[in-house]
TrEMBL record:
SMART domains: ELFV_dehydrog. Belongs to the Glu/Leu/Phe/Val dehydrogenases family. One of its GO terms (molecular function) is oxidoreductase activity, acting on the CH-NH2 group of donors, NAD or NADP as acceptor. This is Glu/Leu/Phe/Val dehydrogenase dimerization region. One of its GO terms (biological process) is amino acid metabolic process. It comes from the Bacteria. CDD domains: NAD_bind_Leu_Phe_Val_DH. Signal peptide: none annotated. It comes from Paenibacillus curdlanolyticus YK9. The keyword Oxidoreductase applies. Residues 144-343 form the Glutamate/phenylalanine/leucine/valine/L-tryptophan dehydrogenase C-terminal domain. The active site is at K80.
Amino acid sequence: MTLWMELEQDGFEQLVWCRDRESDLTAFIAIHSTKRGPALGGCRLWPYPHEEAAVQDAMRLARSMTYKAAAAELSYGGGKAVVIGRVGDHGNAKRFEALGRFIDRLNGAYWTGVDVGTTAVDMDHVALHTPYVTDTTGSLGGTGDWTADMTAYGVYEGIQVSAQRTFGSRALAGRTIAVQGLGKVGWALCRYLHRAGAQLIVTDLSVSLVEQAVREFNALPVAPDRVYDAACEIFAPCALGGVIHEGTIDRLKCRIVAGSANNQLRDPSFALALKQQNIMYAPDYVINAGGVIATAAELDGEGTFRTRSRVKRIGRTLDAIYTESARSNGTTTQAADDFAELRM
Ligand code: NAD
């Protein structure tokens, strides 16, 4: 399928090639949908091997932002910017300035922010040329781990709702939960779960993070490649995407998969495989929407208290999706897509 056919089939509105020879910027901005409002989606900086890989990533990420924002019932659409480059490269400041000029020409159809590889300082450079940027230095989104904390809070809510459905109680005291990835979100999630009395099993590529979690949360450590075999009731993938696949699915002992990672299923068909194994799957873009909800709340001028209560609503949304998937006897991912598409 050609790129143009893909853009048409997936309902994209706009794809912008951003080339600034002076700063040597090559970037793409994909706007999937502005039907519900301006497109939100951070800016990723990544050493893509070629332009096609960058475009594909921008499109995939922009589309899922539309679904995420719609499922969270935000008055925003989905977009994404990707810059081809490396973190720490000499000249990045000028490149982000140039990107700011491209974003400004879109007149607010797309708002950017921090994503993988970018920081508040990069957004400061973007902000020199456009107001359509979040997560700058000093803003709530650009401060500490606010966004990650809100993502973790949404996942925590989603885990409780999933536990209610599966075990008949939201209470997590005494439940065994395996957390894969102890980065910004995984760590914050462990804090919520530990406070709720859960017994944690943890893994990360960083040994020191694992050791710290053992000390702070009384967690049981497990090697990264053994986490799938862990004797747990809930598995929370909070590292990379694509972790549920033919090599891991049969090893899972849990009754629930619910975590923050984007695109947890290597292929959509694994949603059915999980269902057939009697494992409840919390669709990733629904349960991990806390970050984008926090961004939207900041744009809407809401404070931290209201933001938290908006993130908490992820639990209600997830519950509605579980009800629908039970009624239709379909997968939770199909129910989530239907839920989002209805709102798009
Ligand atoms: P992060 O980079 O801070 O942390 C990721 C952690 O995972 C790192 O500590 C890393 O060492 C670990 N890791 C990587 N591969 C691993 C493996 N194979 N086994 C065990 N650990 C491994 O990232 P983050 O911001 O915490 O995000 C975590 C996930 O949640 C990502 O998939 C991200 O896309 C998603 N997400 C994050 C946010 C947010 O607000 N930060 C919002 C929505 C979704």
